[in-house]
Structures are given as C-alpha cells and as structure tokens.
From TrEMBL:
GO terms for biological process: peptidoglycan catabolic process. It comes from Herbidospora solisilvae. Residues 1-20 form the signal peptide. GO terms for cellular component: outer membrane-bounded periplasmic space. It comes from the Bacteria. This is N-acetylmuramoyl-L-alanine amidase.
Amino acid sequence: MKTRPALAAAALAVIGLGTAACGGGVAAGAESAPAAVQKSTAEAVAAPAQAPAKPLAGKVVVIDPGHNGGNYKRPDVINKQVDVLTQKKACDTTGTATNDGYSEAAFTWDVSVRLAKLLRAEGATVKLTRDDNTGVGPCITQRAAIGNKAKADLAISIHADGAGSTSHGFHVIMPKKINGPVDPVVAKSAKLGLAVRNAVKKQTGMPYANYIGKNALDYRSDLGGLNLSTVPKVFIESGNMRNAGDAAKMKSSSWRQDLAEALASSFQTYLK
Ligand SMILES: [Zn+2]
C-alpha cells in the first residue's frame, strides 16, 4: 500500500517531464513544480539503474544451426566447392537423420531457436546464421563470416552426428591453429569448449562420446566454420542420431530444452 502513492507521484512527474519535453508551452509549469515532485522525479529516473543487470547484457552471441531443411533439394548449390584454408569442401551438406527420419537440420534449428530465446531473455544480442528450416545453405564459409561480422563474443555451431549404431554420446569440437585467421581465438575457443562440455554433461544426461575425441573434447582443422572464425567458436555434436538411445533423447522436446539451457548456462560461465 505504501508504494502506491509514491509510484503515482513518480508517474505523474515522469508524465510532466515528458509533456515539457514535447511541448514548450508546459515547460514553465514544470519548472515551478513543487520540490516534493522534483524529488520523486529524481527517484523515478534513478530507479531503473538500480535494477540488477541481465547476466548477458551487452554480449553478442551467434548461433549456427547446422545444415538447412531445404539443402537436399539443391545439390547444385550445396555441392559447390568452397575454400576452408586447409582444403576445399562442399558449401554445405544435408546433414544426417534418425532412422525414422527426424532430420539433423530440424534438430539443430529447434535447439537454436530455444537457445536464442533463453539468451535474449538474459540480455544478449543473438544472431542466427539462417532464418528458418526450409531454405538452402548458407555455405560454411558464410556461416563463419556472419559470426565475424557480428564481432560475436562467442559463436556456436549446433550439429548431431551420424555414426555407427553402437557409437553414442556427445562431443565438442574446437579449432586448431592453422596459421590462419582462427589462430588468435584458439585458446578462447578451448575455454568455451570446456564450459560447453561441462554444462552439457551435467545438465542433459547425454554421456561423453564413446567413439571420438577424449572426454568429449575434439580438435579439428578441417572445418570451415572453425578455420575461418575470428571469434571464439566451437561445434557441438549433440549425440549420434543413428544410435537408438541418443536418437530418443534428441527427438524429445524436453531434452532439447535441457540442451539449450545447458548451452546458455555454459555461455554465462565462459563470459564471466
Ligand atoms: Zn552436421
């Protein structure tokens, strides 16, 4: 009850100020406002600054949802060769799918949208490398360029693997030095990768990959998305879509939410 009159006074004061700012005729009245009202104005202006800052305020995150739902329709576009510095590779690929047809592109898009929502709520500026899951591309070179252009504090490329059916678990891929543009962010990317690995292990129940990397950490120099990045960046291979247990998790919307939440919390850890 006590706060209501104070709020009303503050609101009136703000309205008074706004009117004065917009119309000169009222300015004289505003200048002669009683001291009590002027004090309320000061409080009203000061109040927002005292609100706790959102944890990712001022941070820029680029999320790259691997592949695209329309890639299979345009082999002429996605098979075009691009230069990833250590080799030439296809512009993009169709990605994999579960045995019953849930595509990697749909999975990466869903997790990315969930993650973007969480990060924006935490105050981050978020950019995705594609706008929907019905288009084609962009090329892996362009996916890296989007993160660079945004001067992202961090970037992540979200994928799922398509390995043998007994292979299972997730792993994080980090860049290696290649005497190229990624070299200055290799160390920061390794730090980001560790934060992502730890959070995903803790929060999703997906085990470390049993077929690649060491303790779910892998380092590669053949990925355009990493080689061409000038901002700290990692890939996550969220699980093996060809393994029944991993596929069941990835097909679950609640598991995908857990993954998005794990990634968001790992970014807070890394950016702290
Ligand atoms: Zn992929």
